[in-house]
Amino acid sequence: MFFSDIHNHLLYNTDDGAKSFDEMVKMVSAAYNGGTRLICATPHFAPSDFGNNSLNAESAFNELSAYCKENYKDLTLLLGNELFCDGNEVQWLKEGYCRTLNNTRYVLAEYPFPEKEKVIIKSLDAILCAGYVPIIAHAERYNNLSLEAIRRLKENGVLLQMNVKNYKTLDIGLNLRIKRLLSNRLVDFISSDAHNLLTRPPLMGEYYEKISQKYGASYAENIFCTNAKRLLTEEK
Ligand SMILES: [Fe+2]
């Protein structure tokens, strides 16, 4: 089995992820050697923090695509954004400033934290109403989002992404939320949210076996691999 990573900041000169071409290719190499065969690059779309980084993202993506065609022929590389939702998210999507994941209807959406539950719900509803499917980035982080609210959001079509590195967090609250989400099978994607090689690396496999043993092999395969491949590449 291979891993699919739909949340990754490896495009250099774009956000707070990779700082150079060299770091970017080292990140892709680490991901590939760790068993990842699908990466959707998701530079932050947060104009207040990173300005208009769309051209830089496209240019780094083209360089990385060319590099992967030479060196990692069986790696699927896609482009998207991680949309920072501060009230302008629907406008940014509709006007084409912010990318969806691989030009599908799926949008990786993040919120400031702490953020009020009602603000998150209102934003997700607005994204749904505009015809997109929001995927809550690192959904385990939002301590104001109750399990009941998450269940309702999922009934309406919202999907959840979890950062693999958080699986062994020492934060008791975070740990509890992760256990709740996984045991209720509410997570749809596990990703790296990689920003660099050391502190936030692009590795997916560290907890795969543990999660597979605890929550079931078929569920683990779906959230580590199949869901992303199916929704981002086969549904188009
Ligand atoms: Fe991220």
Q: What's the short story on this structure?
A:
With 236 residues, the protein is α/β, with parallel strands linked by helices. The chain has one domain: TIM Barrel (Alpha-Beta Barrel), CATH 3.20.20.140. The protein is 43% helix and 16% strand.
Explain how this protein is built:
The protein is α/β, with parallel strands linked by helices and 236 residues long. It has a single domain, classed as TIM Barrel. Helices cover 43% and strands 16% of the residues. The chain has helices at residues 21-33, 47-50, 54-71, 89-94, 117-129, 147-155, 172-183, 208-215, 217-234; strands at residues 3-8, 36-41, 44-45, 76-79, 82-84, 106-110, 133-136, 159-163, 189-191. The strands form two sheets. The protein has a six-stranded parallel beta sheet. A three-stranded parallel beta sheet has the order 1-2-4. Helix 1 crosses helix 3 (54-71) and helix 8 (208-215) crosses helix 9 (217-234). It is globular and about 45 Å long. The structure holds fe (ii) ion. Fe (ii) ion (FE2) is lined by residues 7, 9, 82, 137, 193. Fe (ii) ion (FE2) binds at residues 7, 9, 82, 137, 193.
